[in-house]
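Hello,

Our lab assistant flagged a job as stuck in the queue for most of the afternoon. It eventually completed. Since we weren't sure the result was trustworthy after the delay, we are filing this so someone can double-check. Below is the sequence as submitted and the structure that was eventually returned. Let us know if re-running is recommended.
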Amino acid sequence: MKIIFNPLSGNFDYISKLDNPLQYKGSIAVNSDFPTISNVKNGWFYTITADVTDDDATKTNTGMSFYDGDEIAWDGSTWTVIGSLERDDLQSVTDRGATTDVESTFSSSIDLSDSQIKNTGYIDFSTGLTIACQEGRVHWSDDDGTLCLGMPGGNVELQIGQENLIRVTNDESITIADGGLVYVSGAVGNNPKVMLADNTDYSNTGSRTIAMATEDILSNHKGYVTTFGLVRGVNTSGCSAGNVLYLGSTPGTFTNIKPSSPSEVVEVGYCLRSHATEGVVFVTVDHKGWKRAFAVGGDMTGFEKAGVPPTDSKIIYNPLTQQITIQPTGTHFNVWYKGEKHQVSSPITLSHPDVTGSYFLKWQAPNATPTFSSTPWDILEDIPASYVYYNKDLADGFVFEERHGASRNRHWHYAEHFTKGTYWHQGEGLAIDGYTLQPGTPTDVTNRFYLEAGEIHDEDINNQQPQTISGEYLIFERTGADGV
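-- returned structure --
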């Protein structure tokens, strides 16, 4: 059977090879022309020659109203409007039987009463029409160049083959507005639960950003989000057509300004039309994971610095008690461990044994207290914070700065540590001059030198060194096989 569908009327325009031929039984102009319920047969059809209502109690009495020009058929229990066919066309179907092809035009809808349409070669949809969105309706869209399917609720149409939608549950206590960017916060059955995403916390929201809402979704209600495709009716007045859009710092928002560290860079799509109420966004979420692998060693590990060295935290070492304290200078400071952020809001104090040696302050896992021990850190696995050398006999020690930033490649840090380490930043002083060695053959005695003011770098940590006057100083260096 061949069917051609007319989306303008919502009707099938042509039907051929009718499996059960209709039997034409005449015309109906008044309610008494309807057949009685006892003798009407399935497949009988009539033409309506005047507006009429089937309300004669002695007839079929369905209460249905019909218009002049309708063709109606009895389906065994009620009347079905099958179109506005010419009598000769329908009669020819009856006369020739179901094996003869015939094409007929229907001007009104066909109610198949939930029956199937089988063995259809193809369906031709009318083009050049504007069809309203309706749940369960399929029609052709000239603007999109594809078929559109009305989704549950009647607010969203799926442009078939051009976009991907996911039905989600709003996990927020507020409405997620059309155009809001969301991340997966859980699941209800097979449906994801979503909340508004932002770029300030990569591990908890940024890394799980999946889509843009394509309709307003009430709290604890279901709705649709677009993972790939066009979202219309969005406020894009703050950007220009062609701009790359990024996840913003305010939950659910986007920006055309690329975020800088420590904010996460999540590309969410492109602005196709700049407009306050009719903007269009092409959604294609890209977390830039491959770039992060080169930019920050595959994930962020280190201090979220507010300065170099960090000004949002400080380290205090007391050799008399062998205690080291790391504490925020304000309300808190942040450390990142393999892409997960940990906020430190209170001072942390640790101690080492009263034994001469080297001690290392480091984080080894997120949301955990750092360790302070003689075990050196692993640059690729730990978060270095500080190095302490302690001398028991002198009851004294010194502390080194090791709070490296998180927004770097950890593998670069590893290479810099073992190839460059601490170095003189050329052009910024530190020229060593006016020095002599006493005696002529150096021994473990004091030596005399002069050091100009300047700057030294420990990879990404810079330190200003003041001018040092000429005098006698002990030279501290590593010697021997054991590096004593």
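-- support follow-up --
The delay was a queue issue, not a problem with the job. The result is valid. The CA atoms of residues 231 and 323 lie 57 Å apart. The chain has four domains: 3-125, 163-287, 302-416, 424-473.
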